[in-house]
Design goal:
The protein has about 120 residues and is mostly helical. The chain is built from 3 helices and no strands. The radius of gyration is 29 Å and the shape is rod-shaped.
Length: about 120
């Protein structure tokens, strides 16, 4: 079979050429891959922050629990309430970090899906 064009002047119309040009989609695919890599870096940093917060919280609780307790009952109650308040606040901060990790992972999954869609457009199977 011949590989000649079916057009009279043996050229491909510019409208058809523009449909076959996947340069923009290829660039988009590279950009999406870059975004995924950056999201991976951000997720890693936020996970490290989570670990630092967990360690800090544990050490701070240990220090506060070992602290010399006051002799009066009222002072002991105040100390216990401060310790409980610290625990609640640290859990709140930690839950915000965990939520942020989940959000970032969701963004990464979306970017992966978009990358696959663009790939199937650029390189149809």
């Amino acid at each position: 079979m011949s590989s000649r064009c079916i057009w009279k002047d043996n050229t491909i119309p510019s409208a058809l050429l523009s449909l076959l040009d996947t340069t923009r989609e290829s660039k988009m695919q590279r950009d999406i891959r870059d975004i995924i890599e950056e999201l991976d870096i951000i997720i890693n940093i936020v996970r490290q922050q989570e670990e630092v917060i967990r360690r800090f919280t544990q050490l701070a609780k240990e220090i506060l629990e070992r602290k010399h307790l006051p002799s009066s009952q009222d002072a002991k109650e105040v100390h216990r309430m401060k310790l409980k308040s610290f625990g609640k606040r640290s859990q709140h901060v930690l839950s915000k970090v965990v939520t942020k990790i989940k959000e970032l992972q969701g963004l990464r999954q979306s970017a992966e899906g978009i990358a696959q869609n663009v790939s199937s457009f650029v390189l149809p199977s």
